[in-house]
Amino acid sequence: MINIADNLKAIHQDIINASNNANRSSVAVSLLAVSKTKPVSLIQQAYDAGQRHFGENYVQETVEKVQQLAHLTDITWHFIGPIQSNKTRQIAENVDWAHSIDRIKTAKRLNEQRDSNIIPLNVCLQVNISGEESKSGAKISEVTELAEFINNCPNLALRGLMAIPAKGDDEVTKQSFIKMQTLFNQLQHQYPSVDTLSMGMSNDMTIAIDCGSTMIRVGTAIFGARE
């Protein structure tokens, strides 16, 4: 039997420990619970234990969960999966954050499809920091132009950067995170709205926090392995 409340307590303690070791305040690091493929009953348990931010990867599943849990008015939904052009409207209409913007075309569609009567959609630019051909994300050289475009979109709020580095040893991972931290610092100097560096998961969160991550994404350690 999964005890989600205990799992969340353990992860928050890990965040505190990693932040202390990095001489950072643990308050500066938030936890995004990755709830993809998990039933709403488990999300409800996490919510009851105090978790408010949830990340989803699949559009139809996201929409269904948003609708089923609409009564939880202070829940915050993050879409963290690849964004297909024919799915942008559903994302624009249903979530609070989109972490995987990697091209102007996608940002343009989200801006046009976000209702101007609600708060802007918070967005992070996904960066292909390791330069993997098989992985989504903007090239480092594309970040400046993409950020400027998003900053000029009235229905989008530029919040920061997201990355999933290539698998490797700790030193390889750390170098990728250091590159992300440098990009993030540059973006912060240009745009006051930028405050989020979304990087690090269960296996590399300590390194990510040491390199300035402000949001870690954890799924299995909270909800258990996928069935």
TrEMBL record:
The modification N6-(pyridoxal phosphate)lysine is found at residue 36. InterPro entries: Ala_racemase_N (IPR001608), PLP-binding_barrel (IPR029066), PyrdxlP_homeostasis (IPR011078). The keyword Translocase does not apply. Residues 10-226 form the Alanine racemase N-terminal domain. Coiled coil: none annotated. Keywords: Pyridoxal phosphate. CDD domains: PLPDE_III_Yggs_like (cd06824). The keyword DNA damage does not apply. Pyridoxal 5'-phosphate (PLP)-binding protein, which is involved in PLP homeostasis. Belongs to the pyridoxal phosphate-binding protein YggS/PROSC family. This is Pyridoxal phosphate homeostasis protein.
